[in-house]
Amino acid sequence: MTRAERLTQALEERRADVFISAIRPNQLYFLPHPEPSSVISRANCCAIVFGLNEPVVFPGIWISNACRDLLTDCTVIENTHGDPLPEDQLLVYLRKAGLKRIIVDQPGLAESLRGQIDGCQIECEDLGTEIRRKKDARDLEHMREAARIADLGMTAAFAAIRPGLSCLDVIAEGEYAMLKAGAEDATMSPAVGEGTFYLDSAENPRRLIREGDMIFIDMAIHVRGYLGDMTRAGIVGEGTEEQRVLLETVQRAYKTGVAAMVPGADGADIYRQVVTCFAERGWKDYYVHHLSHGLGLGGDLPRIGSAAADVLRVGDALSCEPGVYIPGLGGARVENMIYVGEEGPEELTRCPLDLPMDL
Amino acid sequence: MTRAERLTQALEERRADVFISAIRPNQLYFLPHPEPSSVISRANCCAIVFGLNEPVVFPGIWISNACRDLLTDCTVIENTHGDPLPEDQLLVYLRKAGLKRIIVDQPGLAESLRGQIDGCQIECEDLGTEIRRKKDARDLEHMREAARIADLGMTAAFAAIRPGLSCLDVIAEGEYAMLKAGAEDATMSPAVGEGTFYLDSAENPRRLIREGDMIFIDMAIHVRGYLGDMTRAGIVGEGTEEQRVLLETVQRAYKTGVAAMVPGADGADIYRQVVTCFAERGWKDYYVHHLSHGLGLGGDLPRIGSAAADVLRVGDALSCEPGVYIPGLGGARVENMIYVGEEGPEELTRCPLDLPMDL
Question: Among partner residues A38, A61, A197, which is closest to B198 by beta-carbon distance?
Answer without folding.
Answer: A61
